[in-house]
């Protein structure tokens, strides 16, 4: 059985039958979001909402480079026209149909060698919070695609992209399809929370839950000096990673590929693949394909 972050009944949720559960797309309430997320001593220092932009990641990286963004800055867009996934793949969706945001992090207490865990940490935070708040079981495809089940089929409903912002910061971007309908999907393999049976598509509680979960995991990881084992991050990521235990093909730089079973995520956040030749090869970058059983 694919490991998943299962929803639990004791969490904040959007009840079925709310006035937005019919897939209407109201704007985000930026004032309410600020009241709910920005507090003295908390991680989130500012939250800005723009109606339309090319990429929240690019915008926040530029702000950081100009010295106009502190740690904990959050930039949210109602629509992205040039959003990017991994390997510079385009990520677009209709206005207000999803959640598209970036955050600026400066984990000075953590060795730079461990910063590679930040996108995986974000994946854990997003997946667990959406399972609780939207009532949709989710899983992570390494390194950080968010998977949901639509009609018995595993589909990608979200993704994460991390970029360095100078020598001392990282910008992490998140994109989640919330209310996309079948005829709006960019590719047949895509999905959305609505298509996966979400109990509601009100984006305000979803965004609050994601950012609160991200803050909790980031604070825990930073307090452990970025140690993925001591912070519980490595174990939690592995528990919700749909890639582990599967036959995969890793498309690597230089037109090289590795085929085998994904058996672990190591201490550096790399996917370990056991090949038929008996080699355990760690993969730190590349495109992972889940191979269907013959």
UniProtKB/TrEMBL annotation:
<dbReference type="InterPro" id="IPR003142">
    <property type="entry name" value="BPL_C"/>
</dbReference>
<dbReference type="Pfam" id="PF03099">
    <property type="entry name" value="BPL_LplA_LipB"/>
</dbReference>
<feature type="region of interest" description="Disordered">
    <location>
        <begin position="1"/>
        <end position="25"/>
    </location>
</feature>
<dbReference type="GO" id="GO:0016874">
    <property type="term" value="F:ligase activity"/>
</dbReference>
<dbReference type="InterPro" id="IPR045864">
    <property type="entry name" value="aa-tRNA-synth_II/BPL/LPL"/>
</dbReference>
<keyword id="KW-0436">Ligase</keyword>
<keyword id="KW-0092">Biotin</keyword>
<protein>
    <recommendedName>
        <fullName>biotin--[biotin carboxyl-carrier protein] ligase</fullName>
        <ecNumber>6.3.4.15</ecNumber>
    </recommendedName>
</protein>
<dbReference type="InterPro" id="IPR004143">
    <property type="entry name" value="BPL_LPL_catalytic"/>
</dbReference>
<dbReference type="InterPro" id="IPR004408">
    <property type="entry name" value="Biotin_CoA_COase_ligase"/>
</dbReference>
<feature type="domain" description="BPL/LPL catalytic">
    <location>
        <begin position="36"/>
        <end position="222"/>
    </location>
</feature>
<dbReference type="Pfam" id="PF02237">
    <property type="entry name" value="BPL_C"/>
</dbReference>
């Amino acid at each position: 059985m694919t490991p998943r972050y299962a929803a639990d009944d004791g969490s904040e949720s959007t009840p079925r039958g709310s006035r937005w559960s019919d897939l209407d797309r109201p704007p985000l309430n930026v004032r309410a979001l600020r009241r709910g997320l920005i507090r003295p001593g908390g991680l989130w220092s500012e939250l800005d909402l723009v109606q339309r932009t090319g990429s929240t990641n690019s915008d926040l990286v530029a702000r950081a480079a100009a010295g106009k963004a502190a740690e904990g800055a959050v930039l949210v867009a109602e629509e992205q026209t040039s959003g990017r996934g991994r390997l510079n793949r385009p990520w677009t969706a209709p206005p207000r149909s999803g959640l598209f945001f970036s955050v600026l992090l400066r984990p000075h207490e953590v060795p730079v060698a461990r910063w590679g865990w930040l996108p995986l940490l974000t994946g854990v935070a997003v997946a667990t919070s959406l399972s609780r708040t939207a009532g949709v079981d989710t899983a992570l495809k390494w390194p950080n695609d968010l998977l949901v089940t639509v009609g018995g089929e595993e589909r990608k409903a979200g993704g994460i992209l991390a970029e360095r912002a100078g020598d001392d910061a990282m910008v992490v971007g998140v994109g989640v399809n919330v209310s996309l309908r079948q005829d709006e999907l960019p590719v047949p393999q895509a999905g959305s929370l609505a298509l996966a049976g979400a109990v509601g598509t009100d984006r305000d509680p979803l965004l609050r839950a994601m950012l609160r979960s991200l803050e909790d995991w980031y604070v825990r990881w930073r307090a452990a000096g970025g140690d993925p084992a001591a912070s519980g991050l490595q174990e939690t990521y592995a528990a919700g990673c749909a890639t582990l235990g599967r036959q995969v093909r890793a498309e690597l730089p230089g037109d090289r590929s590795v085929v085998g079973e994904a058996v672990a995520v190591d201490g550096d956040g790399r996917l370990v693949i056991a090949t038929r030749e008996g080699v355990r090869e760690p993969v730190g970058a590349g495109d992972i394909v889940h191979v269907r059983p013959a």
